[in-house]
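Please predict the structure of the following assembly.
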Amino acid sequence: MSSKENRQLHLNLFVTPVGHHEAAWRHPDTDVDQLLDFSFFQRLAAKAEAAKLDSIFLADRVATSPSAVQYGAIGGYEPLTLLSALAVVTKRIGLIATVSTSFNEPFNLARRFASLDHLSGGRAGWNIITSGTDAEARNFNLEQIPEHAERYERAREFLDIAVKLWDSWERDALIRDKESGIYADHHKVHELNHKGKYFSVKGPLNVSRSPQGRPVLVQAGSSQDGRQFAAEHAEAIFTAQQSFDEARAFYGDIKRRAAKAGRSPGHITILPGICPIIGRTEEEAREKEAKLVELSNPAYSLIMLSNRVGFDLTGYPLDGPMPQLPVKEVRGHQSRTNLIVELAQRENLTLRQLLNRLAGGRGHRTVTGTPTQIADMLEHWFAEGAADGFNIMPQLMAGGLEDFLELVVPELQRRGLFRTEYTGTTLRDHYGLPYPENQFAVKPASQAHY
Amino acid sequence: MSSKENRQLHLNLFVTPVGHHEAAWRHPDTDVDQLLDFSFFQRLAAKAEAAKLDSIFLADRVATSPSAVQYGAIGGYEPLTLLSALAVVTKRIGLIATVSTSFNEPFNLARRFASLDHLSGGRAGWNIITSGTDAEARNFNLEQIPEHAERYERAREFLDIAVKLWDSWERDALIRDKESGIYADHHKVHELNHKGKYFSVKGPLNVSRSPQGRPVLVQAGSSQDGRQFAAEHAEAIFTAQQSFDEARAFYGDIKRRAAKAGRSPGHITILPGICPIIGRTEEEAREKEAKLVELSNPAYSLIMLSNRVGFDLTGYPLDGPMPQLPVKEVRGHQSRTNLIVELAQRENLTLRQLLNRLAGGRGHRTVTGTPTQIADMLEHWFAEGAADGFNIMPQLMAGGLEDFLELVVPELQRRGLFRTEYTGTTLRDHYGLPYPENQFAVKPASQAHY
């Protein structure tokens, strides 16, 4: 197996404080102080940067509950706060934060990402989510989460405004002539005067144009609405895919939709999640896996799964089948719920078996093996049209992250599949994305203009 | 003159990228790249910390306009982004960010400040503002800024929720017992179930209790509504006071209101703004002042003043009197507008003279002199019941900040008025504030409990 042309894969590290496995905080190697220890995140980012990863990424959820924190390592940093701090102790790696369009105002969000992009010298990315749970809605003046289609309608208007705000300062608007006292060319700083269904925003933004023009736009929804939104707007996609066939089908679908929307399919980097457990031998890897299963708490896993699918599974026998979910429209995490139900049916899993499968990555693909086996799998998906790279989700941060960076990344580099040096300075450079055009700029016919 | 007891004054540095004078960016010593140069802010914070200042502070306004950026150095960092980054390159100095209650959600705000408080080891402060301009309202779905009383009503509910969110995790809620798998005591993590006029928030917060319990609460409104709000809730107050008599009256009023509200007046630190221009001789100081006046642009100053008082002053003759403002309720910056009108009337200033007086600090007290003269003034206000300390607003950052830190601070230290070493680690420690009680904690009768 080898990749066609000189195509290089992209690797994003999906950061959690202790690891993606639900029981990671109970592992002997985990220091539970990691959750709020900035120096831990600083070391982690430095390692990922030394391995030349494209980016690090933080997910987000704007709710928790007393029952969830009873068992889960919850209660750490808000993503943009942490990435703002990491921006000034790293130099090259991209910094992607998740922020919901359902519970924020476009002006605030555009401003914070523009600030992060300035602070990091052009390394900011925004993972656009619409949020999917009633628990989150109840922290923001609602009784339940709005319908799927309505959330995406709001997200489209939100993104449209955010992009206009980022474009509201042209790249060459700053003059800063002390002699004349002219700070900016006011013809190149634009009001939006947006009035829409959800928002009215006058503009301009109060942050000047940032190094990347705007953050890299990332998307993670895999429902029909989510796919279409991603095909039209996303520059990178995080996705949960259980099998090669599903991943390839998803990959093809997105690239076709993108082409249909008039975009270059090469400008959407598709990154399925991979939750590895790595051993120098298969046996060592299996032992590591068994240790995490042993530390798992089905009571907690059931709460997590119940929250995820929006149906209370507590009380169902663990060694019986996954119960039939009531037929209703899934308002929340539609595609992930479908993935979980299909996984249980396809492999005929008991509830306990399903919980163990989900414990390592909440529906993302788990893989246990040697560095060569894991590199083989990544290369297969990459070379055969199922991925442009991967969203790396170590089940255990302590040790598991290093295993990937020190054992798998060098193997991918030896195969010529992954960079050994950064070739650019911005996240757009790393992902091979163009600098965005500015919708407000007047382009002289003879001149390339930003 | 000497202070009674061993009372020490408090010094906050009000940070702007170039200086508080409107023309600071045009000064030859100013590097206009400062606006977005993190290393500049890092050096500035390091200097303020080396001088043992209590805190640094960033103001905020969520709008600008093409006409404002034509002349003004505008377009820098969102405050919490910048302070999050500064948190990890400083050790002791407090970090106070302004965030408006009118254009945010309590859950998002509480979470970000809890994150900053964790990140900084207990050095976060929140300057609570309600925002006062239509230009800001128009970036957040409104046609005009809500009435003064309505903004404060929303602010009260907002603050009530934010405090409940910060209290939603008790100080000893975290158990983190790997053996049993219990991460937190779910009886010590509380839902709020708040349902009010403006907000419904279920809680709990998804960040565990931060080192200070909650950020230090700062307030800057000086209207009747603002004073009452401050007396009931603020732990530090930034205020614009033109004269000693006004400052003393304000100081007395706030302390009386606080006592009446059942609070200890010692737990509100009142910090009038001071915009110094410092020379080793009076002549040198006057020359520095003249240089800034020379660089001022009345056209820009008029736009700024018009925005501030909510009335278009452009076109009025600069050498005539300040025109009568139409009699109407001031919706926006009520107390500052009154201060400006009274200043013009009391001193019988032409519009040009008024603009020059305001250019150095937008209505805050400007003072030009030698280190001894400035220290005398600060000591007088401090010793005679007009201030607990000062909000230092250098008219020029390049040089002006150093003048204050290197010439005035040592003079205050020689007089025994200002610390020569930090005695605590948190912003609450610096301001002499108690650790806040938790409204959800059950207090055993015999035991002090947080």
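Chain B touches chain A through 81 residues (CB under 8 Å). The first helix of chain B runs from residue 38 to 50.
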